[in-house]
Amino acid sequence: MAITKEQVIRAAERIAERGERPTNPRIRAELGEGSYSTINAHMKEWRAYQAEEQAPEPAPEAPQSPEVPEAIMAQAQQLAGQLVTAAWRESDRQHAEAIEAERHALQAEFDKLRAERQQHDAEIEELNDALARLEQQGEEAVAAEVEKAEAVRQELAQVQRQHADTREELAAVAATGKSDRERIKELREEVETVRRQAAEADQQARQQAAEAAQEARGQADEIARLRRDLEAAQAATAQAEQAAQKAADAAQAAEDQAERERATRIEAEREAREQCQRELSALEQRAVAAEARLAEAQEAAQRFEEWMQKGAKKGWRG
Q: Which of 172, 183, 176, 192 is nearest to 233 (CA)?
């Protein structure tokens, strides 16, 4: 914001009250801001006003003095001209000093802005490199997770195939058990038939003891053999049922383990994607902040260039 004439006048009066000469650099140091061109313009008005206030009142008309010699008049005019020339030179020197001080201040500000802009450019380039590296790392991480997921899917497919084979084996075992049960049923029916036959033979043996004795012994041996076959079939059926239960338990355990591993890998993939997303978001925020700082530096540089153009129009010299 540009300083006002009232601020410049108050600063000049404070400096004058301290017994110092109110020059443009002192006024700028007193205010802490403002350009030398603005301060100089306001000070011209203030000095003109001070000159009018301090001008002596017209002296009363003096009695006519004797005529001054021409030589003395010439010397007086020459001395007055020298005094005026010295005053103008002093004014030009002060103005030149003020302009030179302002030029140095503007040059320092320009150098500072240029250094800040170079620093911002370096930060932006560094952020762009970091963003590119993170994007590459994110792509590599995603590719690795996809590869892991594919491996998990292949393992799961293999486990499913093994599970299917196990089910087929269980079906075969169950079919065998069913066949054994049917055989046991047949054997029981045969045993029952034999029992009936034995009862009939026993009745006939009472009637025909001699002839039936030999036949009864043969029937007894057959019954014993059938009973042994029946017990063996029952034991085989029990073992088959135990094997089938163990195979079913193993298949269920393998399926549960595969499901847990798959859930763990899926959770790891999700966490990796979320981590990549958070890092990309943080980089985008840093890039936005850097672009904002660069825009501020560009605006400051634009203001400085406009200031220099105004100074060139007013006849400043660098």
A: 183
Q: CA 218 → CA 20, 189, 211, 212, 229, distances in Å? A: 151, 19, 12, 10, 17
Of the two residues 308 and 38, the one the predictor is more confident about is 38
Contacts 24+ apart (CB under 8 A), 163-167: 163/251, 163/254, 163/255, 166/247, 166/248, 166/250, 166/251, 167/251
With a CB cutoff of 8 Å and minimum separation 6, the contacts of 226 are 187, 190, 191, 194
Question: How much is the pTM?
Answer: 0.26
Mean pLDDT rounded to a whole number for the chain: 79
Nearest CA-CA partner of 130 in 284, 291, 294, 295: 284
**CA dist., res. 211 & res. 193, Å (int):** 21
pLDDT at 59: 47
**Which pLDDT tens digit goes with each residue over 206-223?**
787 677 568 758 877 886
Integer Cα distance of 99 and 36 in angstroms: 7
Q: How many CA atoms lie within 13 A of 25 on its CB side?
A: 12
Round to whole Å and give the CA distance between 72 and 93. Answer: 31
The Cα-based distances of 261 to 87, 158, 186 in angstroms read 96, 14, 49
Helix or strand or coil: residue 20? coil
Which pLDDT tens digit goes with each residue over 123-172?
Answer: 878 877 877 787 788 788 768 877 887 887 888 788 678 868 767 876 77
Q: Which helix (H) or strand (E) holds 81?
A: helix 70-207
pLDDT of 71 above 90: no
The DSSP 8-state label assigned to residue 67 in this structure reads: P
Domain boundaries, the chain: 136-300
C-alpha to C-alpha distance for 308 and 318, rounded to whole angstroms: 10
pLDDT in tens, 92-105: 688 778 778 878 88
Hey, what amino acid is at 24?
Answer: N
Q: Tell how far CA 62 is from the center of its chain.
A: 91
